[in-house]
Amino acid sequence: MTTRSLVNGAAVAAEAVGRVLGTQAASPLSFWVGVEPGRVLQLDDVVVTRREVPGHGQVLVAGVVSAVEARHEGASYDSDVFLIADGALPAAVVECAEVRVTRVEPEVFVPPLPGAVVYRAGHEDRDQALYFDVMERRVPMGLGRDGQPLYVNFDFLDGTRGAHVSISGISGVATKTSFATFLLYSIFNSGVLAGEAANTKALIFSVKGEDLLFLDRDNARLDEAALRGYARLGLPARPFGSVHVFAPPRPGDPNGVPHVSARTDGVSSFYWTLAEFCRQELLRFVFADADDERAQYSLLVGQVAARLQTWAEPVGDSGAVRVRTPDAESGEICRTFDDLVTYLGDQLSDEATRTVWAGSQTPLGTVNAFLRRLRSAIKPLSPIVRGDLPPALAHSISTSDAQVSVVDLHNLPERAQRFVVGVVLRGEFARKESTGTARPLLFVVLDELNKYAPRDGDSPIKEILLDVAERGRSLGVILIGAQQTASEVERRIVANSAVRIVGRLDPAEAARAEYGWLPTAARERATIAKPGTMFVAQPEIPVPLAVTFPFPAWATRPSEAATRPSRPAARPPAPKPAGVNATAWSVLGSGADPFAGLPGADDDDDVPPF
After folding, report:
1. 392 pLDDT band (50/70/90 cuts)?
2. Do residues 378 and 430 both lie within one domain?
């Protein structure tokens, strides 16, 4: 059975896939469909049915298939399956599907009637069922199982009605970082930013190798299937256009050369001079572990930081400092972090000067614990806190130079990574506060969020991330956090995330209460999800959507980086498929493969099946 509806003024046949079952109770929130012989319904299919309601007219009931079952009708025992297969026992094979209602329009909450025809949702019905028709600013986030685009409402990303994104999944399998960068790319290129696109920024912390250092390079493995996926989403298949990479200096290098190996251009060194370290009271970020805040020396950290801010004065142009206590005549000149720690150790170990720095009420045991922890920071922090590099060397991390700023942390020890993340986030958040406006937006992508904002304990970084989660929406700072286990992240950060996403999940993690927004079937599916498949929940849509996003058009590792070759000779363009954005098709739809012949162009590993 088919019916016809109008899509863009043209009559389109809607496929009837079954009827509402009468053997299962139907409600305004869910119902079961008996699948018509010869038709197929699978998980995530969008279906609609209608009912005439006196006084209200025709009511649309739309939903998403959440379960599908097949069984022998007429069999009594398990062994009957063999008799039925041999034709010795009469029985019928029946399929039925459970539908979770996503929308009732108009909002007359009545159940669909048994026997009502159920249709696979066409373009207009699908948009209505998934609320895409009311999204004034929608961002493509991938394709559904029907091969059609799925969207996220930008109002829940830019702070208009909500903000922040939480992405969870197994490391190396869930493609969390890949999806985060694709979501950023879609925001920058879908048109939702309009005139603000050029000024909107992204700050990405890279902690796993040099995979994120090539966002502005073409991906040599991009193939025709991926190009078609981008065309369906109305996006150009190209790398990020404006990227600036920051990396720490090589240890022991007197010129501050960035510590990267695979990329040589567009990379700047970052570090903090000793003068900045003292003036900005950065000592507290040396003690950025949650355990440090629980220790008795946390108060001493603040006292010493305040003394350094007052008593340290710059020496020369290289960032060195002279620390002069009120009773000292000349003071001590420190040119390296080791020098500064050694000086503090001498001051705090001497009974005559200890009270000047720590006060008379601080126990000696607390001072010794502080010094042990401070001395252990010399090796990890010496490359990025120093006063011995050329004075003209630029060293600050700034988001103003490019649309995407990547801070490479993979060559730093974990303690130094915490220091960098905390100091940079504090600086960017303070900068946004000082502007007094939420525009332009700043998107912050931070992986391993459970390490920086753990559920238990307190730390300077956790305080900043909580501030971003709770006040960042009003300041235009949007957090895109990724973690293997959402159950180990501070609850308030996850709770303030308007958009929640999971990829492949560990079965034990999937059973946690933090994933209560996933229906039971979706939880089970998340434990077997393939790379490139994500489950996305947003406030407007009652059920999470299964999304497959395209293979990145930008290089995700050094081996994929390539220079885009010149296009082959022009040939007649292919006709634009229905529903594909005209601008995207004008760029991608010529029929020529711009990546033909490149190494890996025919390799389909990790490429979503578009």
Report:
1. low
2. no
- Domain count for the chain: 3
Helix (H) or strand (E) holding 384: none
Nearest 10 degrees: Cα torsion 400, 402, 408, 414:
30
Beta strands in 144-237 (DSSP E): 149-153, 165-168, 201-206, 218-219
Per-residue pLDDT tens for 175-206? 899 999 999 999 999 999 988 988 999 999 99
pTM of the model: 0.84
Same domain, 193 and 214: yes
DSSP state letters, 512-544: SGGGTTS-HHHHHHHTSPPTTEEEEE-TTSSS-
* Residue 385 to residues 248, 256, 302, 305, 338, Cα–Cα distance (Å): 10, 12, 18, 15, 9
| DSSP code per residue over 392-407 | T------SSSSSEEEE
Percentages helix, strand, coil for the chain (3-state, rounded to 5) are 30, 25, 45
DSSP 8-state code for residue 94: E
**Which H or E element spans position 17?**
strand 10-20
**Residue 570 is assigned to a structural domain of this protein:** no
CA distance to 71, 137, 474, per residue, from 300 (Å) = 70, 50, 34
Q: Does residue 558 lie within any of the structural domains?
A: no
Which of 105, 134, 163 terminates a domain? The answer is 134
Q: Which domain holds residue 47?
A: 2-134
The whole-angstrom separation of Cα 88 and Cα 592 is 57
Write the pLDDT tens digit of every residue in 111-128: 999 999 999 998 899 999
What share of the chain in percent tops pLDDT 90? Answer: 61
User: How is residue 30 written in tokens?
Assistant: 């869910």
